[in-house]
Amino acid sequence: MIKKMGVAWQLRLRMAERDMYSTTDLVPLLAERGVRLSREQVYRLVTAPPQRLSMDVLAALCDILTCTPNDLITVEVVNAQVAKEAGAAGGPPPPVQRSTIRRPPAS
Predict the structure, then answer these.
(1) How far apart are CA 104 and CA 12, in angstroms?
(2) pLDDT tens, 52-70?
(3) Would you say residue 30 lies in a domain?
(4) Global pTM?
(5) How distant is the alpha carbon of residue 80 from its chain centre?
(6) Is the residue at 43 inside a domain?
(7) Phi/psi at 27 (5° precision)
(8) How many Å apart are CA 99 and CA 101, to the nearest integer?
(9) What are phi and psi of 26, to 5 degrees?
(10) Contacts of 94 (CB under 8 A, 6+ apart)
(11) Of the N and C termini of the chain, which has fewer Cβ atoms inside 10 Å?
């Protein structure tokens, strides 16, 4: 069995703890730290877990919110166990089921 892992992105919560409720509040604060992101980019950063995050952005967020990366990102198990793909365990492959194609009679 393989564990499926995920992350919980806590940026919105950390912002609320500091009375920051608008995503646009972050734009000038990030710019002060050399991180130039559009309002749309910051909105996506706040509202959804990023697939990729530069160290500069992470460091700036931690500085702005006086927190650590562990305060922003929580690793969690998404599914307790996920079955491996068939045949991946080294056992025999599943039997092949053959099919027959039949053509309708000619009229």
Answers:
(1) 62
(2) 999 999 999 999 999 999 9
(3) yes
(4) 0.69
(5) 17
(6) yes
(7) -55, -55
(8) 7
(9) -80, -25
(10) 86, 87
(11) C
Task: Tell me which amino acid residue 75 is.
Answer: V
The answer to the question of residue 42 being in a domain is yes
Residue 99 corresponds to which tokens in the numbers above? 């099919």
Return the amino acid letter for 2.
I
Looking up tokens 């922003």 gives 72
Give 43's pLDDT tier (boundaries 50, 70, 90). very high
- Asked whether residue 45 is domain-assigned, the answer is yes
DSSP per-residue codes, 28-84: HHHHHTT----HHHHHHHHHS--SS--HHHHHHHHHHHT--HHHHEEEEEEEEEEPP
Q: What is the token pair recorded at 101?
A: 């194609």
- Residue 35's closest CA among 15, 51, 53, 9? 53
d(CA 62, CA 48): 17
Task: Find the length of the chain.
Answer: 107
Q: Which DSSP letter does residue 87 get? A: T
CA 47 vs. chain centroid, Å, equals 11
